[in-house]
Amino acid sequence: MLIDIVLDAMGSDKAPEPELRGAILACRHLPVRVHLVGPREVLRPALDQHLRGERLPIEIVHASEWISMEDKAAQAVRSKRDSSMRVGLKMVREGRAAGFFTAGNTGAAMATAKMVLGGLEGVDRPALATILPTQTGLPCLLLDVGANVDSEPKNLLDFAIMGKVYSEQVLKTRDTSVGLLSIGEEDSKGNSLTRETLPLLRDLLGRNFIGNVEGRDLYNGRADVVVCDGFTGNVALKTSEGLVKLFSSSLKNALKSTVTAQVGALLSRKAFNTFKRKLDYSEYGGAPLLGVRGVCTIGHGSSNERAIMNGIRVTAEVAQANVNGQIEAALRNSNGNGDMTL
């Protein structure tokens, strides 16, 4: 049975080309039906040209407007009532699709999702989560990475519960460890938010809470889930992206520097490609917006066709795992003593 996923066809920096190609890849390799949302007069001829008569479960849903990266999120959400984001998210709210994916304006996507889908019971603020690679080969889920610039201890408790559920249900972690991002491991380290939050997380999660973790712990596999406010998380994420680009370009230049290095590069091409894939955001799909009443995943603006395909995959996986239902159950059953029944 195919899973219906809505794709904002006008989201990415080079839309709709990556979205069209990504939708075709997804329908070839995944059990999904993709609903492309955008102006029909633009999408129909472009899609037909790509398909060349191939029959795939791709449908076009008309939306006369779209929100660009240059648009101010709050203003665009209010004024563009027939945007591809709003039309797509309405399909999720009405039960016509299992989830929504966009590589568009992050602020607009979050605002539209909160307005159209509403929040889960018990969650004051949604959180944007992202997956980071680690030395152990296991993923680390970091949240929040930008949905909330300012947070309170209660919000970070919600983030911890939502992150733990997502990690266990989608990433399939066991005995999930949760850390609080700070500037030192000691309980006394950090700002007022982390110092107030730490004992509350310890009471809530019990042995699953490993205390404060530092920036380097995001990649060494010490924690399965790391929570922080959206300002800190976004800085950490953007710093990581910049470092990956620097490291990749430096390594590429070094491998081209001498004839010996070029021969070595040829011999190690398979290992180098594996390394690149491990750090490539396109392999991880999108970042789920946790805490809204429906499945909404947000991808990178520069997403290529493979990133779009993986974004569709992640959206389908979150929908199949019933993450929202699990989060609501965990919030109801958490009693402050580490006893969280999922």
From TrEMBL:
<comment type="pathway">
    <text>Lipid metabolism; phospholipid metabolism.</text>
</comment>
<keyword id="KW-0594">Phospholipid biosynthesis</keyword>
<keyword id="KW-1208">Phospholipid metabolism</keyword>
<keyword id="KW-0963">Cytoplasm</keyword>
<keyword id="KW-0808">Transferase</keyword>
<keyword id="KW-0443">Lipid metabolism</keyword>
<comment type="similarity">
    <text>Belongs to the PlsX family.</text>
</comment>
<comment type="subunit">
    <text>Homodimer. Probably interacts with PlsY.</text>
</comment>
<keyword id="KW-0444">Lipid biosynthesis</keyword>
<protein>
    <recommendedName>
        <fullName>Phosphate acyltransferase</fullName>
        <ecNumber>2.3.1.274</ecNumber>
    </recommendedName>
</protein>
<dbReference type="InterPro" id="IPR012281">
    <property type="entry name" value="Phospholipid_synth_PlsX-like"/>
</dbReference>
<dbReference type="InterPro" id="IPR003664">
    <property type="entry name" value="FA_synthesis"/>
</dbReference>
<keyword id="KW-0012">Acyltransferase</keyword>
<dbReference type="Pfam" id="PF02504">
    <property type="entry name" value="FA_synthesis"/>
</dbReference>
<dbReference type="GO" id="GO:0008654">
    <property type="term" value="P:phospholipid biosynthetic process"/>
</dbReference>
<dbReference type="GO" id="GO:0043811">
    <property type="term" value="F:phosphate:acyl-[acyl carrier protein] acyltransferase activity"/>
</dbReference>
<comment type="function">
    <text>Catalyzes the reversible formation of acyl-phosphate (acyl-PO(4)) from acyl-[acyl-carrier-protein] (acyl-ACP). This enzyme utilizes acyl-ACP as fatty acyl donor, but not acyl-CoA.</text>
</comment>
<dbReference type="GO" id="GO:0005737">
    <property type="term" value="C:cytoplasm"/>
</dbReference>
<dbReference type="GO" id="GO:0006633">
    <property type="term" value="P:fatty acid biosynthetic process"/>
</dbReference>
